[in-house]
Specification:
single chain; 342 residues; five-stranded antiparallel beta sheet; 12 helices; alpha/beta; seven-stranded mixed beta sheet; 2 domains; Dihydrodipicolinate Reductase, domain 2
Length: 342
């Protein structure tokens, strides 16, 4: 049995879902993988809760405290007001980074990840910001310090985008990637097609169902898809791509008439993030595309996501599904954490 002590940075929806999953699945993980996952510290804006004892923090009691409106630094004898993420790393071997995505400078996630890698800690991140902006730097730090950078939760949450490419397609040459990587936009386009709803009506419905954020601009503008595409491309084709390299068009200009015209031609409109080898370079793009009904992404509806790889030796491989929610992202974090040790 191996003890794995964890510090979670960020206690928003994803961070809390991860702590809950950790508490719920700990016995199963012990039995199946001989790993004892211990929540040693939890960090948020105002400070942290830390426990040096072998059993770590009482996760269920911490969640009850947070759900009741308490702050992590006020969690009884474990509270540490003002303690930062890098300082909390002394208590753990793994950083789980779940702070909000910041695509301007990657903070505070970048600081947390850099501090962890410099200390030789494993890093598991659902935060796209530092990975999009500084992947090459972070990968080099991980290699120098012989530790892992595990980021599948940052590339469409529960959908195993990178897992399929890196494990199942090992030895093949990936020629192109096409993905529906954002559940909000796919839900809106699906509703516009199935019910003839206007864009604004479908968006409002998605917000009421909790599928879309109150401010959905990153999703509907295509920027969330572009960020995920950059991460995927950097992992698969080499760490040289930036958001500026991705011509990006969202779905705000798609009308019911566009959907209807595509339907008459036996096609559907989807927001697709694509990376394709053209000559000696890889070209990235995010835009609404008309897909033939036979295309493997055409039948992906609702808030589901999908990714399709074309390879030289295995032909086309497509995977779809995956829960678009904080729980789905938390499950991907747990998956990466387990796979870091087994």
């Amino acid at each position: 049995m191996k003890d794995v002590r964890i510090v979670v940075c960020g206690l928003g929806n994803v961070g809390k879902a991860f702590v809950e999953l950790l508490a719920e699945r700990a016995p199963d993980v012990e039995a199946r993988y001989a790993l004892r996952l211990v929540l040693a510290a939890a960090v948020d804006i105002g400070g942290a809760a830390v426990c040096d004892a072998p059993g770590g923090l009482p996760a269920r009691e911490l969640l009850a405290h947070l759900h009741a409106g308490g702050r992590v630094e006020g969690f009884g004898k474990f509270g540490r007001p003002g303690l930062s993420g890098p300082e909390a790393l002394d208590a753990a071997a793994v950083l789980v980074e779940a702070t909000p995505t910041n695509l301007t400078d990657g903070e505070p996630g970048r600081t947390h990840i850099v501090a962890a890698l410099r200390r030789g800690r494993e890093v598991v991140s659902a935060n796209k910001g530092p990975i999009v902006l500084f992947y090459k730097e972070l990968l080099e730090l991980a290699r120098q310090n012989r530790c892992g950078l595990h980021i599948s939760a940052a590339t469409a949450a529960a959908l195993p985008t990178l897992d399929v490419a890196r494990v199942c397609l090992a030895g093949s040459r990936i020629l192109s990637v096409e993905g529906i990587l954002n559940g909000t936009t796919n839900y809106i386009l699906s509703r516009m097609r199935a019910g003839g709803a206007a864009y604004e009506t479908a968006l409002k419905e998605a917000q009421q169902l909790g599928i879309a954020e109150t401010d959905p601009r990153k999703d509907v503008g295509g920027f969330d898809t572009a960020a995920k595409l950059v991460i995927i491309a950097n992992v698969l084709f080499g760490p040289s791509f930036r958001l500026e390299d991705v011509p990006t068009q969202g779905i705000t200009g798609v009308t019911p008439e566009d959907i209807a015209r595509a339907g008459k031609d036996g096609e559907v409109i989807k927001l697709v993030g694509s990376a394709e080898r053209v000559g000696g370079e890889v070209r990235l793009r995010v835009a609404p595309q008309r897909l033939k009904a036979t295309h493997p992404l055409a039948s992906v509806n609702g808030s589901e996501k999908a990714i399709s790889y074309m390879t030289d030796t295995m032909d086309r491989i497509t995977v779809s599904g995956g829960k678009s929610s904080p729980v789905g992202a938390a499950a991907a974090l747990l998956k990466d954490l387990i796979n870091a040790y087994v």
